[in-house]
Design brief:
Layout (H helix, E strand, L loop, with lengths): L2 E12 L2 E12 L3 E5 L6 H8 L7 E6 L2 E2 L11 E4 L11 H11 L4 H14 L15 H13 L5 E5 L7 H16 L3 E6 L2 H7 L2 E6 L2 E7 H8 L4 E6 L4 H8 L4 E7 L2 E6 L6 H10 L4 E7 L3 H11 L7
Parallel strand pairs: 3-8, 3-9, 6-7, 7-8
Antiparallel strand pairs: 1-2, 1-4, 4-5, 9-10, 11-13, 11-14, 12-13
Bound molecules: adenosine-5'-diphosphate and magnesium ion.
Length: 315
Protein backbone atom coordinates (compact mmCIF):
# COMPACT_ATOMS: atom_id res chain seq x y z
CA UNK A 1 0.00 0.00 0.00
CA UNK A 2 1.54 3.28 -1.10
CA UNK A 3 0.80 6.13 1.21
CA UNK A 4 0.42 9.81 0.33
CA UNK A 5 0.20 10.81 4.00
CA UNK A 6 1.22 8.94 7.14
CA UNK A 7 1.23 10.39 10.64
CA UNK A 8 2.46 8.54 13.71
CA UNK A 9 1.43 9.82 17.11
CA UNK A 10 1.02 13.34 15.77
CA UNK A 11 0.20 15.77 18.58
CA UNK A 12 -0.30 19.53 18.47
CA UNK A 13 -1.13 21.72 21.44
CA UNK A 14 -2.13 25.33 21.76
CA UNK A 15 -1.07 26.10 25.32
CA UNK A 16 -3.04 23.71 27.52
CA UNK A 17 -5.42 22.72 24.73
CA UNK A 18 -4.53 19.53 22.87
CA UNK A 19 -5.94 20.24 19.41
CA UNK A 20 -4.58 17.04 17.84
CA UNK A 21 -3.82 14.05 20.02
CA UNK A 22 -1.60 11.07 19.04
CA UNK A 23 -3.03 10.98 15.55
CA UNK A 24 -2.19 7.91 13.46
CA UNK A 25 -3.47 8.59 9.99
CA UNK A 26 -2.83 6.75 6.75
CA UNK A 27 -3.95 8.13 3.41
CA UNK A 28 -3.48 5.81 0.47
CA UNK A 29 -2.30 7.20 -2.83
CA UNK A 30 -4.87 7.70 -5.58
CA UNK A 31 -7.85 7.94 -3.29
CA UNK A 32 -10.18 10.76 -2.34
CA UNK A 33 -9.82 10.69 1.41
CA UNK A 34 -12.22 12.62 3.60
CA UNK A 35 -11.15 14.04 6.95
CA UNK A 36 -14.43 14.37 8.78
CA UNK A 37 -15.24 15.93 12.10
CA UNK A 38 -17.32 18.65 13.73
CA UNK A 39 -16.06 22.21 14.12
CA UNK A 40 -13.10 22.37 16.47
CA UNK A 41 -12.23 18.68 15.99
CA UNK A 42 -8.65 19.43 14.91
CA UNK A 43 -8.89 19.14 11.12
CA UNK A 44 -7.36 22.49 10.20
CA UNK A 45 -4.61 22.07 12.79
CA UNK A 46 -3.68 18.66 11.35
CA UNK A 47 -3.68 20.05 7.83
CA UNK A 48 -1.52 23.01 8.84
CA UNK A 49 1.03 20.59 10.27
CA UNK A 50 0.95 18.50 7.10
CA UNK A 51 1.63 21.49 4.87
CA UNK A 52 4.36 22.87 7.13
CA UNK A 53 2.54 25.87 8.63
CA UNK A 54 2.67 24.48 12.17
CA UNK A 55 5.24 22.30 13.89
CA UNK A 56 3.93 19.27 15.77
CA UNK A 57 4.69 18.95 19.49
CA UNK A 58 5.05 15.19 19.25
CA UNK A 59 5.00 12.49 16.63
CA UNK A 60 6.31 12.14 13.12
CA UNK A 61 4.80 12.24 9.67
CA UNK A 62 5.55 11.45 6.07
CA UNK A 63 4.18 13.17 3.02
CA UNK A 64 4.50 11.38 -0.34
CA UNK A 65 6.88 8.92 1.24
CA UNK A 66 9.26 11.54 2.67
CA UNK A 67 9.71 11.96 6.37
CA UNK A 68 9.27 15.61 7.28
CA UNK A 69 11.38 17.18 10.05
CA UNK A 70 11.85 20.86 10.62
CA UNK A 71 11.55 22.70 7.36
CA UNK A 72 9.51 21.00 4.69
CA UNK A 73 11.75 19.42 2.07
CA UNK A 74 11.06 19.52 -1.67
CA UNK A 75 7.91 17.52 -1.05
CA UNK A 76 6.14 20.85 -0.51
CA UNK A 77 6.42 21.49 -4.23
CA UNK A 78 4.72 18.17 -4.98
CA UNK A 79 1.58 19.07 -3.08
CA UNK A 80 -1.15 21.63 -3.49
CA UNK A 81 -3.04 23.24 -0.61
CA UNK A 82 -6.20 25.25 -0.35
CA UNK A 83 -6.65 26.84 3.10
CA UNK A 84 -10.01 27.03 4.84
CA UNK A 85 -12.01 29.94 3.34
CA UNK A 86 -9.18 31.28 1.17
CA UNK A 87 -9.02 35.06 1.07
CA UNK A 88 -7.44 36.62 -1.97
CA UNK A 89 -6.61 40.28 -2.65
CA UNK A 90 -9.79 41.74 -4.14
CA UNK A 91 -8.00 44.10 -6.50
CA UNK A 92 -6.39 41.33 -8.53
CA UNK A 93 -7.96 39.73 -11.56
CA UNK A 94 -8.47 35.97 -11.40
CA UNK A 95 -5.72 35.16 -13.88
CA UNK A 96 -3.31 37.65 -12.25
CA UNK A 97 -3.68 35.88 -8.96
CA UNK A 98 -2.84 32.53 -10.51
CA UNK A 99 0.06 34.13 -12.36
CA UNK A 100 1.53 35.46 -9.11
CA UNK A 101 1.18 32.07 -7.42
CA UNK A 102 2.73 30.43 -10.50
CA UNK A 103 5.78 32.68 -10.19
CA UNK A 104 6.06 31.76 -6.52
CA UNK A 105 6.16 28.11 -7.52
CA UNK A 106 8.98 28.96 -9.94
CA UNK A 107 6.95 28.26 -13.08
CA UNK A 108 8.35 29.78 -16.28
CA UNK A 109 6.29 32.27 -18.29
CA UNK A 110 5.70 29.58 -20.90
CA UNK A 111 4.43 27.14 -18.25
CA UNK A 112 2.14 29.77 -16.77
CA UNK A 113 0.71 30.75 -20.14
CA UNK A 114 -0.09 27.11 -20.87
CA UNK A 115 -1.27 26.00 -17.45
CA UNK A 116 -3.39 28.93 -16.23
CA UNK A 117 -6.03 28.97 -19.02
CA UNK A 118 -6.37 25.19 -18.68
CA UNK A 119 -7.02 25.50 -14.95
CA UNK A 120 -9.42 28.41 -15.35
CA UNK A 121 -11.37 26.29 -17.78
CA UNK A 122 -11.35 23.29 -15.46
CA UNK A 123 -12.69 25.25 -12.48
CA UNK A 124 -15.35 26.96 -14.59
CA UNK A 125 -13.86 30.46 -14.52
CA UNK A 126 -13.12 30.71 -18.25
CA UNK A 127 -14.45 34.05 -19.49
CA UNK A 128 -14.30 35.53 -15.96
CA UNK A 129 -10.52 35.53 -15.61
CA UNK A 130 -10.26 39.27 -16.27
CA UNK A 131 -12.78 40.17 -13.57
CA UNK A 132 -11.53 41.36 -10.21
CA UNK A 133 -11.51 38.70 -7.50
CA UNK A 134 -13.57 41.12 -5.38
CA UNK A 135 -16.42 40.63 -7.85
CA UNK A 136 -16.33 36.84 -7.63
CA UNK A 137 -19.02 34.99 -5.72
CA UNK A 138 -17.96 32.76 -2.81
CA UNK A 139 -18.18 29.73 -5.06
CA UNK A 140 -15.99 31.36 -7.69
CA UNK A 141 -13.42 32.32 -5.05
CA UNK A 142 -13.41 28.79 -3.72
CA UNK A 143 -12.89 27.42 -7.23
CA UNK A 144 -10.10 29.92 -7.79
CA UNK A 145 -8.58 28.56 -4.57
CA UNK A 146 -8.77 25.05 -5.98
CA UNK A 147 -7.12 26.22 -9.24
CA UNK A 148 -4.35 27.77 -7.12
CA UNK A 149 -3.89 24.44 -5.33
CA UNK A 150 -3.47 22.67 -8.70
CA UNK A 151 -1.02 25.10 -10.35
CA UNK A 152 2.11 23.08 -9.73
CA UNK A 153 0.51 19.83 -10.95
CA UNK A 154 0.66 18.34 -7.44
CA UNK A 155 0.55 14.60 -6.73
CA UNK A 156 -1.30 15.32 -3.49
CA UNK A 157 -3.98 17.99 -3.15
CA UNK A 158 -5.04 19.04 0.36
CA UNK A 159 -8.28 20.99 0.56
CA UNK A 160 -9.46 22.39 3.88
CA UNK A 161 -13.28 22.49 3.86
CA UNK A 162 -13.59 23.08 0.10
CA UNK A 163 -17.32 23.68 0.22
CA UNK A 164 -17.52 25.83 3.35
CA UNK A 165 -19.90 28.75 2.87
CA UNK A 166 -21.17 27.58 -0.52
CA UNK A 167 -24.79 27.29 -1.58
CA UNK A 168 -26.05 23.87 -2.72
CA UNK A 169 -25.25 24.56 -6.39
CA UNK A 170 -21.75 25.73 -5.53
CA UNK A 171 -21.26 22.61 -3.43
CA UNK A 172 -22.23 20.33 -6.29
CA UNK A 173 -19.83 22.16 -8.62
CA UNK A 174 -16.96 21.80 -6.17
CA UNK A 175 -17.72 18.10 -5.68
CA UNK A 176 -17.63 17.51 -9.44
CA UNK A 177 -14.36 19.38 -9.65
CA UNK A 178 -12.80 17.26 -6.91
CA UNK A 179 -13.81 14.08 -8.74
CA UNK A 180 -12.12 15.41 -11.88
CA UNK A 181 -8.93 16.17 -9.96
CA UNK A 182 -8.85 12.60 -8.69
CA UNK A 183 -9.40 11.24 -12.21
CA UNK A 184 -6.18 12.95 -13.22
CA UNK A 185 -4.41 10.56 -10.87
CA UNK A 186 -3.92 12.94 -7.94
CA UNK A 187 -4.56 11.99 -4.33
CA UNK A 188 -7.09 14.29 -2.70
CA UNK A 189 -7.25 14.78 1.07
CA UNK A 190 -10.14 17.01 2.03
CA UNK A 191 -11.56 18.05 5.34
CA UNK A 192 -15.25 18.53 5.93
CA UNK A 193 -17.72 18.75 8.77
CA UNK A 194 -20.48 17.38 6.52
CA UNK A 195 -20.93 13.66 6.38
CA UNK A 196 -23.07 13.66 3.24
CA UNK A 197 -20.39 15.51 1.35
CA UNK A 198 -17.70 13.02 2.31
CA UNK A 199 -20.07 10.14 1.62
CA UNK A 200 -20.73 11.40 -1.89
CA UNK A 201 -17.18 11.89 -3.15
CA UNK A 202 -14.73 10.06 -0.93
CA UNK A 203 -13.61 6.46 -1.18
CA UNK A 204 -12.09 6.64 2.32
CA UNK A 205 -12.78 8.58 5.48
CA UNK A 206 -11.02 9.35 8.73
CA UNK A 207 -13.30 10.66 11.48
CA UNK A 208 -11.77 12.94 14.11
CA UNK A 209 -13.31 14.48 17.21
CA UNK A 210 -11.65 16.43 20.02
CA UNK A 211 -8.30 15.85 18.37
CA UNK A 212 -8.64 12.07 18.40
CA UNK A 213 -9.08 9.72 15.49
CA UNK A 214 -12.26 7.68 15.95
CA UNK A 215 -12.13 5.54 12.84
CA UNK A 216 -10.32 5.47 9.49
CA UNK A 217 -11.30 3.13 6.70
CA UNK A 218 -13.06 2.86 3.36
CA UNK A 219 -16.53 4.43 3.34
CA UNK A 220 -17.99 0.97 2.81
CA UNK A 221 -16.24 -0.51 5.84
CA UNK A 222 -17.09 2.47 8.02
CA UNK A 223 -20.73 2.17 7.17
CA UNK A 224 -20.73 -1.57 7.76
CA UNK A 225 -18.89 -1.23 11.06
CA UNK A 226 -21.04 1.59 12.36
CA UNK A 227 -24.40 0.94 10.89
CA UNK A 228 -26.69 0.17 13.75
CA UNK A 229 -29.87 -1.82 13.83
CA UNK A 230 -33.04 0.07 13.22
CA UNK A 231 -35.58 1.78 15.39
CA UNK A 232 -39.31 1.23 15.38
CA UNK A 233 -41.94 3.75 16.34
CA UNK A 234 -45.24 2.48 17.57
CA UNK A 235 -48.06 4.86 18.36
CA UNK A 236 -50.48 3.42 20.89
CA UNK A 237 -53.76 4.72 22.25
CA UNK A 238 -52.76 4.87 25.93
CA UNK A 239 -49.19 3.87 26.72
CA UNK A 240 -48.59 2.31 30.12
CA UNK A 241 -45.55 1.04 32.00
CA UNK A 242 -46.91 -2.43 31.54
CA UNK A 243 -46.66 -2.29 27.77
CA UNK A 244 -43.19 -0.70 27.88
CA UNK A 245 -41.94 -3.46 30.19
CA UNK A 246 -43.52 -6.19 28.06
CA UNK A 247 -41.84 -4.96 24.87
CA UNK A 248 -38.51 -4.51 26.65
CA UNK A 249 -38.52 -8.20 27.54
CA UNK A 250 -38.46 -9.28 23.89
CA UNK A 251 -35.07 -10.78 23.05
CA UNK A 252 -34.54 -8.66 19.90
CA UNK A 253 -35.36 -5.36 21.64
CA UNK A 254 -32.52 -3.38 23.22
CA UNK A 255 -34.31 -0.30 24.52
CA UNK A 256 -37.79 1.18 24.76
CA UNK A 257 -38.47 4.81 25.46
CA UNK A 258 -41.77 6.58 25.63
CA UNK A 259 -42.43 9.86 23.85
CA UNK A 260 -46.03 10.93 24.45
CA UNK A 261 -48.18 8.28 22.82
CA UNK A 262 -45.22 6.83 20.96
CA UNK A 263 -42.99 3.97 21.96
CA UNK A 264 -39.53 4.25 20.46
CA UNK A 265 -38.23 0.72 20.22
CA UNK A 266 -34.56 0.15 19.44
CA UNK A 267 -33.97 -3.18 17.78
CA UNK A 268 -30.96 -5.47 17.86
CA UNK A 269 -31.97 -6.94 14.54
CA UNK A 270 -32.63 -5.90 10.96
CA UNK A 271 -35.31 -8.60 10.61
CA UNK A 272 -38.94 -7.66 10.22
CA UNK A 273 -40.29 -8.15 13.73
CA UNK A 274 -43.45 -6.05 13.41
CA UNK A 275 -45.74 -9.05 13.89
CA UNK A 276 -44.07 -10.13 17.16
CA UNK A 277 -44.10 -6.59 18.49
CA UNK A 278 -47.74 -5.95 17.66
CA UNK A 279 -48.67 -9.28 19.23
CA UNK A 280 -46.84 -8.38 22.44
CA UNK A 281 -48.44 -4.94 22.62
CA UNK A 282 -51.90 -6.33 22.03
CA UNK A 283 -51.28 -9.00 24.67
CA UNK A 284 -50.45 -6.23 27.15
CA UNK A 285 -53.93 -4.85 26.47
CA UNK A 286 -52.90 -1.91 24.33
CA UNK A 287 -54.30 -0.63 21.01
CA UNK A 288 -51.86 0.15 18.20
CA UNK A 289 -52.60 3.29 16.20
CA UNK A 290 -49.62 3.23 13.84
CA UNK A 291 -46.28 1.54 13.36
CA UNK A 292 -43.22 2.59 11.41
CA UNK A 293 -39.70 1.32 10.97
CA UNK A 294 -36.81 3.71 10.73
CA UNK A 295 -33.32 2.71 9.51
CA UNK A 296 -30.52 4.70 11.00
CA UNK A 297 -28.71 6.86 8.46
CA UNK A 298 -24.94 7.15 8.41
CA UNK A 299 -25.43 10.78 9.39
CA UNK A 300 -27.15 9.77 12.63
CA UNK A 301 -24.47 7.19 13.32
CA UNK A 302 -21.80 9.84 12.80
CA UNK A 303 -23.59 12.22 15.14
CA UNK A 304 -23.82 9.54 17.82
CA UNK A 305 -20.18 8.58 17.42
CA UNK A 306 -19.06 12.18 17.71
CA UNK A 307 -21.36 13.00 20.62
CA UNK A 308 -20.29 9.93 22.55
CA UNK A 309 -16.54 10.33 22.09
CA UNK A 310 -14.91 11.84 25.13
CA UNK A 311 -11.62 13.04 26.42
CA UNK A 312 -8.35 13.94 24.74
CA UNK A 313 -8.92 17.61 25.16
CA UNK A 314 -8.17 19.67 28.23
CA UNK A 315 -11.23 21.89 28.39
N1 LIG B 1 -4.30 29.43 16.80
C1 LIG B 1 -4.98 28.83 17.77
N2 LIG B 1 -4.78 29.11 19.07
C2 LIG B 1 -5.46 28.48 20.05
N3 LIG B 1 -6.38 27.52 19.83
C3 LIG B 1 -6.63 27.19 18.56
C4 LIG B 1 -5.96 27.82 17.46
N4 LIG B 1 -6.41 27.27 16.30
C5 LIG B 1 -7.33 26.35 16.66
N5 LIG B 1 -7.47 26.30 18.00
C6 LIG B 1 -8.35 25.38 18.76
O1 LIG B 1 -7.94 24.06 18.46
C7 LIG B 1 -9.05 23.20 18.30
C8 LIG B 1 -9.02 22.59 16.92
O2 LIG B 1 -9.25 23.60 15.96
P1 LIG B 1 -9.21 23.34 14.39
O3 LIG B 1 -8.00 22.56 14.06
O4 LIG B 1 -9.36 24.65 13.72
O5 LIG B 1 -10.49 22.42 14.18
P2 LIG B 1 -11.40 22.16 12.89
O6 LIG B 1 -10.62 22.58 11.69
O7 LIG B 1 -11.68 20.70 12.94
O8 LIG B 1 -12.64 22.97 13.08
C9 LIG B 1 -10.27 24.06 18.57
O9 LIG B 1 -10.63 23.88 19.92
C10 LIG B 1 -9.79 25.46 18.31
O10 LIG B 1 -10.51 26.39 19.07
MG1 LIG C 1 -11.17 23.89 10.16
Amino acid sequence: MKLAIETIGLTKRYGSLTAVSKLNLKVEKNTIHGFLGPNGAGKTTTIKVLVGLLKPDEGTFKVLGQEVHGDMPDVRLRMGYMPELPKFPKHLRGWELLDIYGRMYGMTKQERVEQIPKLLDMVGLKGREKDFVGKYSKGMQQRLGIAQALLNEPELVILDEPSLGLDPVGMVEVRELIKEIAKEGRTVFLSSHLLFEVEQICSHVAIINRGELLISDSIQNVSNKLSKPSTMQVEVAKPSNKVVEAVKKLSFVSEVTQDGNKLIIELKTHDDVRAQISQEITKAGEVIVSMSLKEQTLEEVFMQLVTKSQGGRAE
